[in-house]
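Exercise 3.2. Students should predict the tertiary structure of the chain below and write it as structure tokens, then compare their answer with the key that follows.

Predict this chain's 3D structure.
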Amino acid sequence: MSFVPGNQQRYLRACMVCSIVQVQQRFIREGCPNCEAFLGLQNHPDGVQQCTSQVFEGLITLADPSQSWVARWQRLDGYVPGVYAVKVVGQLPEETIQNIEDAGGRYVPRDGTVHDDDA
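Answer key:
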């Protein structure tokens, strides 16, 4: 995430799948850098509204997710460097969860509802 001017911070959103934080227009313009293959957010404002949330807590900046214990703790290892939310509030549509599973992924909610034992 590049610098976000103060007047643009209200447009920040977090992906409900990987928790990366970007401004809404970047999600629409470029999609999610980690989840685009199965979310298809690029050029789909409705998808951005459904699969990202304005309600999130805490921020983590990761320069090298593959080497970070924080990335492992937050299940962010393997993702691109960037700014991530610690917790993202919201529910993905069932169809989107099915798309993730069909692509061979496993959806773990980022809102704290799944414990380490369950994941």
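Discussion points: The helical segments are 24-30, 36-39, 45-51, 69-73, 94-102. The longest helix spans residues 94-102.
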